[in-house]
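Researcher: Structure for this, please.
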Amino acid sequence: MRFEGFGPAGVHLMTTHTVIEETPAWYLIQGDFATAGLGALFVSVSNRSVAEGRQTGEIPKPERFDSETARNGVVQHKPRRLPGGRHAERQLAAAAGRAGDPGRCAPAGRPRSTI
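Model: Predicted structure, token format:
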């Protein structure tokens, strides 16, 4: 999937790509974006992220997330290994118990991460 972002007067600002691969047992999601055209003259930002894990029925179990961001020449690399996807399983179980409010999986006041 590809998305092109345009600003006022049709100025090209960014490009994104997303590729999703899955089987009944696993999934892999790859995404990237980069500023483009005139947008890149003001700020140069690019990112490439990969998330992968197992699936049990309809329940995803994240195992790895890797992100690399380059912002004006400074590169940050943030790999994450998720032990067996247990944290995500708890979040999904909590969300299932609160149908209609999946965003409140963690107790209030505690920091949350997003994959």
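Researcher: Any notable elements?
Model: Residues 2-97 form one domain. The chain has two helices and six strands.
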